[in-house]
Design a protein that fits this description.
By secondary structure, this protein is an all-alpha fold. 71% of the residues lie in helices and 0% in strands.
Length: 438
């Protein structure tokens, strides 16, 4: 009887073992969970009381302008002319969906959230590949499942119409490609490297801070193997600039000056630095929340408005560098431990920030152990952790800004927990033998 039960259960056990370790199945289950939450949670129903601004914010506004035939313009709603406030890729994606399913319609919201969910689910694949290459199959499986199942990961792709999930997919794929460049020959990997970085620049410009480190690290690793890289680097650079040059030309023709993809840094700098600054985003100063600021934006135009805001921020910083340093330290803490949330009950805010901090602690601990054990690629991840967040320490940070590097954080956290499990299992026989000797 027991043998027959075991025989009947074995196909299920075998099937689950195959599913549990298959990246394809992990991606499918991750996508199913995300799609299910969009439907069950009605996350595609955005409020319209703010004239649909919460539907994609500036991305949605520019997308609506494109779909309405007014071009890449008006990031806040009122007609303010051509803009370079956001990089072009996601607004054009939004505009395409608007043209097919309606501007600010529920159908468009559903489609855009599903696209975000596809990006998020596909991120399981480079996560799996990176973790397997750096650590082990066990860490790869655990990291991919963590990304597939964790609620805080699912939140962004099912709630926010923004490029956040696409940025995570692109960056994780770039990390995997950089890890493999040392052993790949020919022109194809360099074309892929340049193309991925070009797409990334047009989607999430802030990720470009990691570009020099990724390129130099790959070059160094190839040099250690006696492989030449100069021609490949040139080819990747040509592909990269071929991707972004049309947009740079567009910006120059529209604004009469060189603008590297987007122009809003000065305005963002002001939202984190000025009278009343406490290290968080001073959203009440933004043109979308301040009627006077919106009138200034309309009257002055985009570039003069941004220049004015930048000057205000720089004057504030130069007036007291010590104060700016303290604000930067606060922003460092908020980036890794979570920022204060006045709109939630204190206990909910503390619980969320505790989990936010716990993920950071696991990541830093795992990264330190990976460096000590000289795991392949550990130094590449160190440069990513150092470079990507740096700009937010001087401007402001919100939880969404950390999401693009959370795949790598998940890998390092799972690696640390796996190492802890190994130590526990290794110490168990020693304790048992000690008791037997007694």
């Amino acid at each position: 009887m027991a043998a027959s039960r075991a025989d009947s259960a074995s196909p299920l056990v075998t099937a689950w073992a195959r599913i549990r370790t298959s990246p394809g199945w992990i991606v499918a289950i991750a996508l199913l969970l995300r799609a299910g939450w969009i439907v069950v949670g009605h996350t595609y129903k955005f409020k319209s009381t703010d004239d649909n601004f919460g539907f994609g914010w500036e991305m949605g506004r520019i997308g609506a302008s494109l779909a309405s035939g007014h071009g890449f313009s008006s990031p806040f709603g009122p007609a303010t002319g051509p803009t370079a406030w956001e990089p072009p890729l996601y607004p054009y994606l939004t505009a395409g969906v608007f043209l097919l399913f309606g501007i600010y319609s529920k159908a468009s919201a559903f489609v855009l959230l599903m696209l975000n969910s596809v990006f998020s689910a596909l991120t399981c694949i480079p996560i799996f590949l990176i973790a397997r290459r750096m650590f082990s199959e066990k860490v790869a499986v655990g990291s991919a499942w963590a990304w597939a199942l964790l609620p805080n990961i699912i939140f962004w792709c099912t709630r926010a119409i923004w490029e956040t999930s696409l940025a995570a997919l692109l960056l994780t794929t770039i990390v995997w490609l950089a890890l493999t460049l040392e052993e790949r020959d020919g022109w194809r990997p360099w074309v892929q490297f340049g193309l991925l970085w070009g797409i990334t620049a047009l989607s999430s410009t802030s990720l470009l801070s990691f570009l020099p480190a990724a390129g130099l690290w790959a070059w160094y690793r190839r040099t250690r193997r006696g492989k030449r890289s100069f021609a490949g680097v040139v080819l990747a650079s040509v592909v990269f600039f071929a991707c972004i040059t049309p947009w740079l030309v567009r910006n120059y023709e529209i604004f009469g000056k060189f603008i590297f993809i987007r122009d809003n840094f000065g305005a963002e700098l002001r939202l984190g630095n000025g009278n009343g600054a406490d290290g968080t985003l001073m959203l009440y100063l933004d043109a979308t929340h301040d009627v006077y600021a919106m009138r200034q934006f309309q009257a002055m135009g985009e570039l003069p408005y941004i220049a004015m805001r930048k000057q205000q921020a720089l004057d504030y910083i130069r007036a007291d560098y010590g104060r700016f340093a303290k604000l930067s330290v606060r922003r460092f803490v908020y980036f890794w431990a979570g920022s204060p949330k006045d709109t939630q009950p204190w206990w909910m805010s503390e619980a969320k920030n505790s989990l936010f901090l716990a993920a950071s602690v696991l990541m830093f601990w795992g990264l330190g152990r990976a460096l000590r054990l000289r795991k392949p690629g550990a130094w590449l991840l160190l440069w990513l952790i150092l470079l990507y967040p740096a700009v937010y320490y001087f401007v402001y940070c919100i939880p969404r800004y950390r999401h693009p590097i959370e795949p790598e954080m998940a890998i390092l956290g799972v690696f640390l927990l796996t190492e802890a499990g190994k130590r526990t299992m290794a110490s168990a026989p020693d304790q048992s033998s000690a008791r037997e000797s007694v």
